[in-house]
Specification:
heterodimer; A: 160 residues; Chemotaxis protein chec; B: Rossmann fold; 40% helix
């Protein structure tokens, strides 16, 4: 990929969804020990549960979110830590770190993004009674992956 | 092989546990693990604990990993202790900054136990 064109422009011209899906698959395979595969968008999406967020700033601005139901989040934490993952604090921590690694892995796969884009520390919201509003117009990509049969939604919202 | 004392610095407690487990999976026997959730806590921990190895994240609140590496040499007992970064930041500039500041190794997250073995054993003077 060329580094001459701005990343914001490239995000409109290039299909980054396969890059995002690969970044997610690698993180789950290596750190969770589980293979996840993209599911059809029409499949049921998680209700409530947890949403982890990591912001991007610099050449690429936006936010990456990872959303799943509470049972799935607990299972992800358990797969990462073993049976010691039994508190909500550990579940929140695990999901935040998954989101952090997906964002970093995605950024590192984009030529020209890794040197000029910074990541925030993760934030995790519990519960599903919220609406997501981005303050700038931009494009987004979203993928639903199945983890042990349960959906995990990964969404990258980019600002112009 | 001698058991080691390790300082693991990461704002995620889950990641600290995974790093410790990866050290054990790499065949490194551990006498003691000291944990810190940011660079400032890590500097304070080094005032109270002597360690043989430091594993450190970069993106952390309060004091990030690069600043921590720059300041490690201010702690007498930590001078010369090998530091390996374990981070999502994979850019060449971060690698250069970390190595220039004094880190001896650099592992990108996500990582496998084999990568920990490959990068950590040499800085401990052992064959991977």
């Amino acid at each position: 990929m060329s580094t001459d064109t701005s990343l914001a422009t490239r995000s409109h011209e290039e299909d980054w969804l396969p890059v995002l899906e690969l970044a997610v698959e690698e993180v789950f395979e290596i750190m969770v020990g589980s293979r996840v595969k993209p599911a059809a968008q029409s499949e049921i999406k998680p209700q409530g549960g947890f949403t982890a967020m990591v912001g991007l700033a610099g050449a690429l601005c936006g936010v990456l979110t990872v959303r799943c139901d509470a049972k799935t989040a607990h299972q992800v934490a358990k797969s990462m830590l073993g049976d010691t993952a039994d508190t909500e604090e550990q579940v929140v921590d695990a999901l935040g770190e998954i989101c952090n690694m997906i964002t970093g892995n995605f950024k590192n796969k984009l030529t020209g993004a890794d040197n000029r884009c910074m990541l925030s520390v993760p934030t995790v919201i519990s519960g599903g009674e919220y609406s997501f509003h981005s303050l700038a117009d931009g494009n987004f990509m979203e993928t639903v992956l199945l983890f042990e049969g349960a959906p995990i939604v990964v969404r990258l919202q980019l600002n112009k | 092989m001698d058991k080691i004392r390790a300082l693991i610095v990461d704002d995620s407690s889950v990641m600290r546990k995974i790093v410790e487990r990866s050290l054990r999976q790499a065949g490194i026997e551990i006498e003691k693990v000291v944990e810190a959730s940011n660079g400032a806590e890590a500097l304070a921990a080094l005032q109270k604990n002597e360690v043989d190895l430091i594993l450190c994240d970069i993106n952390m609140p309060v004091m990030d990993g690069l600043e921590f590496v720059r300041q490690v040499s201010t702690v007498d007992s930590a001078k010369g202790v090998p530091i390996v970064m374990i981070t999502t930041e994979g850019s060449e500039s971060h690698v250069v900054q970390a190595l220039s500041a004094g880190a001896r190794g650099y592992i990108r997250k996500p990582f496998t136990p084999d990568q920990v073995k490959e990068h950590v054993l040499p800085v401990l003077g052992r064959k991977p």
